[in-house]
Amino acid sequence: MVQIGELSRLSGASVRSLRYYEQQGLLRSERRGNGYREYPDEAVETVRAIRALLDIGLPTALLKDVLPCTVGERSESACPQLLERITALRDDVRSRADRLEAVTQSLTAYLRANG
After folding, report:
1. Of 29, 33, 95, 96, which one is least surrounded by beta carbons within 10 A?
2. Around Cβ 7, how many Cβ atoms within 10 Å?
3. What is the DSSP letter of 37?
């Protein structure tokens, strides 16, 4: 069991983020008699998974469903929705990047013609 400060240090997540993850039901702790939170040792891996999923752009609302597919056994065959959601996210990012590239090219062409 680790306390919130130690979990923050080990995982790289801020104490504030850890409290938020707990509030969202992504992370669980037990309260000691003095009110301190204690997290199971595997919470470090869970927090790292949460941060990785957030880094790739998965919305917090989906994390609760996807998180069990990323910790422990991590069997993609057991959680096909994870791959589907990541694929959809990737496709959305690619589409947005394509639209931004088109705008960039239009602006560049305008600047060349009028500069």
Report:
1. 33
2. 25
3. E
Helix segments in the chain, DSSP class H: 4-11, 15-23, 43-55, 60-66, 80-114
Distance in angstroms (rounded) separating the CA atoms of residues 91 and 63 = 19
CB of 86 within 8 A of CB of 62?
no
In tens, the pLDDT along 85-94 reads: 778 878 988 9
For the stretch 86-91, contacts whose Cβ atoms lie closer than 8 Å and that sit 24 or more positions apart, written own/partner, are 86/56, 86/58, 89/56, 89/57, 89/58
Q: How far apart are the C-alpha atoms of 114 and 21, rounded to whole Å?
A: 51
* Cα–Cα distance for residue pair 49/64, rounded to 1 Å: 11
11 within 8 A of 48, measured Cβ to Cβ? yes
